[in-house]
Amino acid sequence: MRGSGVGTNCSGTFRPPHLQRPLTLYLSWLPRENGSCHFFVTNLSFALHSPENGEDKENDLSQQHDSEGTMNLILVIEDDPRIQRALERQFTAEGYRVHIEGDGPAGLAAAKSMKPDGVVLDLMLPGLSGRTICKEIKQWSGDTPVIVLSAISEVADKVLLLETGADDYVTKPFSPRELLARVQAAIRRNARKAAAENIAASSVQSSCKTSKVGEVEVDFVTMEAHRGGTPIPLTAHEFKLLRFFLENPGRAIAREELLSGVWGLNFNLTTRTVDNQMLKLRQKLESDPANPIHFRTVHGVGYKFVPASTAQ
Predict the structure, then answer these.
(1) Over the stretch 87-129, which tens digit does the pLDDT of each residue have?
(2) Vertex 228, ends 223 and 230: CA angle to 5°?
(3) Which of 250, 274, 279 has the alpha carbon at shortest distance from 263?
(4) Are 77 and 109 in contact (CB under 8 A)?
(5) Angle CA 151–152–156, to nearest 5
(6) What's this model's pTM, rounded to 2 decimal places?
(7) Which terminus of the chain, N or C, has less C-beta within 10 A?
(8) What are the two backbone dihedrals, phi and then psi, of residue 85, each rounded to the nearest 5 degrees?
(9) Which residues have C-beta within 8 Å of that of residue 256, sequence separation ≥ 6?
(10) How far apart are CA 259 and CA 252, in angstroms?
(11) Which domains does the chain have, with CATH numbers?
(12) CB of 171 closer than 8 Å to CB of 143
């Protein structure tokens, strides 16, 4: 096998005995704290022979993604050069365009100006924290997937992180392949959600763009809520939870369905997470949170939203 590479990337060409054409493997690695390295294949290509002109042509398997229209822009906000190089290699090998920023302010500015299809965000950044950046992004672009790189392992801290609006998280040290899969899943999930919302908007007119919950007026376009002209701060997940209820008025919704429909994450959050979010939503939107009129508990099931027209 012939190979070349420096740092976290290398490549090599070899010809397996059962194939008539050479294969080229592109490898990357990340050093671990114990001194070992984590290796992973980032790309694979092989040469095709053209009978017409006798020339060998390179067929890069990653180019399949171009023809399928998946040249999405991924913004990576990470200050570690090793992780930057590994992620750039991983995403470009899958047909994505990648833009990298190494500090908080520059990352936030890039997110606003470039409008990426997905953001990979480190929590610990110079100049501006990842939590602040995530909140900012979700305030003006709630549909942009944000996947956080974090050393957090406690469930309580994970919930706090998700309340800032993050769509998913990957704990360090991590596999770039796992991160790629989570980013792709978040993009697909948000695309399906956007398509469903467009269909609902066309069939239900624009009733969910601006809504009223008791004395509170909610605008889902500007992501703002007011009571008598006074702003009410709602997080990105509180807006998602409220929209879910408004789209399902009067229906008893199980806690598990709320976790799946609002959070949409593949890790172990408990139904207590829903209870905590409902408590906060009541405190902000109900006139008397201790005796809620609109966000009612359905014992043994979960919750239901009662519109003002039917509330008693």
Answers:
(1) 999 999 988 999 999 999 999 999 999 999 999 999 889 999 8
(2) 55
(3) 274
(4) no
(5) 180
(6) 0.51
(7) C
(8) -65, -40
(9) 271, 302
(10) 14
(11) 2-61 (no CATH), 64-196 (3.40.50.2300), 205-305 (1.10.10.10)
(12) no
Cα separation, 88 vs 100, whole angstroms = 8
74 neighbors 95 (Cβ within 8 angstroms)? no
**pLDDT digit string (tens) for 221-268?**
888 999 988 999 998 888 889 999 998 888 999 988 888 778 765 555
- Give dist(CA 208, CA 247) in Å, integer: 8
Name the residue among 229, 226, 230 with its Cα closest to residue 216: 226
What is the 3-class SS of the chain, one letter each residue? CEEECCCCEEEEEECCCCCCCCEEEEEEEEECCCCCEEEEEEEEEEEEECCCCCCEEEEEHHHHHHHCCCCCEEEEECCCHHHHHHHHHHHHHCCCEEEEECCHHHHHHHHHHHCCCEEEEECCCCCCCHHHHHHHHHHHCCCCCEEEEECCCCHHHHHHHHHCCCCEEEECCCCHHHHHHHHHHHHHHHHHHHHHHHHHHHHCCCCCCEEEECCEEEECCCCEEEECCEECCCCHHHHHHHHHHHCCCCCCEEHHHHHHHHHCCCCCCCCHHHHHHHHHHHHHHCCCCCCCCCEEEECCCEEEECCCCCCC
Find the farthest-apart pair of alpha carbons in the chain and give their distance in angstroms, rounded. 82
51-72 per-residue burial string, b: 16 or more CB within 10 A, e: under 16 = eeeeeeeeebebeebeeeeeeb
Q: What are phi and psi of 61, to 5 degrees?
A: -60, -25
Residue 72: name the closest of 99, 112, 49 by CA. Answer: 99
Length of the chain: 312
